[in-house]
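One thing: can you check what follows?
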Amino acid sequence: MSGLQLSIWRRMSFSDPLDCTACPRLAEHLAKLRRRDPGWHNRPVPAFGSLSAALLVVGLGPGEKGANRTGRPFTGDVAGELLYPALHRFGFATAAEPLDVDKAANPALRLVDARITNAVRCLPPANKPTPVEIRTCNPFLAREIAAMPRLVAIIALGGVAHQAVLRAFGLKPAQYAFGHNIRHDLPAPLPILFDSYHCSGYNWRTGRLTRESFEAVFARVRQSVLQAAAGAAAPDW
């Protein structure tokens, strides 16, 4: 996405797609879950954190018993047990625990100069969105990114999020290979893109991702955000 395109996007307001039914398979799946568990969120999951943040974390999509239940990204499943402590350790969250004593979203937790979103806003069956569903949701991600005037860095959690971010900027994923703790300096004036393996229970259990290797990504991001805050004005997109 060029600087001119970003400037045009910034003239438009952004709001989370709370009632979107553009993907028939996902809409039907959520309708079934609303009948099964009427007390759960069971709708497109809104992002968490301010649009004025310097950091955007992009995941794949809601987990069934996590964000799809609680209504907050990475809250209620194993992935959040890695993500929120990492955010807290490096100053991006006020607490490390995403849940309260009732296993609901912790109301005391606030993000600090950070925002969390997903490449796909609705829970897909078996946690596997189709390529068409990922592309259908991509304009929401593009508008969300364009509505963040202070954005310095994006962390893509997993290959799907990595490709979704690049697609939102109109860049070809083939030109930016995904890998854990890889930094991509995108064409100016775009933010820096950092990759991480997804903090899923599978990656954690198999040892593909450890707490130390995951938090190493956030250490690099924290340094980049601090350097941007200390040395330059906000990006002029």
Summary: Confidence is low (pLDDT under 50) at residues 233-237. Residues 3-231 form a domain with the Uracil-DNA Glycosylase, subunit E fold (CATH 3.40.470.10). Residues 211-231 form the longest helix (21 residues).
